[in-house]
Amino acid sequence: MTENGRVIGLEGDFAVVRFDRRSACDKCGMCGGSATDKHIDVRLKNDCDVKTGDGVVVEIKSQTVLLSAVIAYLIPLAVAIGAMLVCYFAGAEEWLTFTVFMLALLVGYLIVHWVAKRFSKRIDMRILDKVTVCEGDSK
User: Exposed/middle/buried for 15, CB within 10 Å: 0-12, 13-18, 19+?
Assistant: First the structure.
């Protein structure tokens, strides 16, 4: 998967690249941004000798995108369903089963948040190339 971004700063051997958020980004959270952020800033190794203001094409491996989706959606669901099944087989009342399910869903999302913070620096993203941008481009 590739995305277009703009270099907004340089930090030693790294370039800080800004991406506009898309609607698909709102629920994932792997970048560490919130749903209200209009853009995402990512620090990447500057292998293409880009300068501040340059447009760039950044690649992220499809496996990374798939793994991020699995982490963001399946972990909370698996935790919540597991807790619900424990309550069900223990003979808990419905209101208690529902409450435990909702609390376990919250715990699942906290796990996702922790995993995202811990592994976000290990995501394999790299700058592929500089992009020529027209003067009228607002990015």
Answer: buried
76-123: per-residue pLDDT in tens?
Answer: 999 999 999 999 999 999 999 999 999 999 999 999 888 877 776 666
Report the alpha-carbon distance of residue 15 to residue 53 in Å, rounded: 11
Domains in the chain: boundaries: 1-60+124-139, 62-122
Q: Is pTM, for the whole model, over 0.70?
A: no
User: Under CATH, to which class is 1-60+124-139 assigned?
Assistant: mainly beta
What is the identity of the amino acid at 107?
V
Of 123, 136, 122, 135, which Cα lies nearest the Cα of 3?
Answer: 123
**CB within 8 A of 34, min separation 6: which ones?**
none
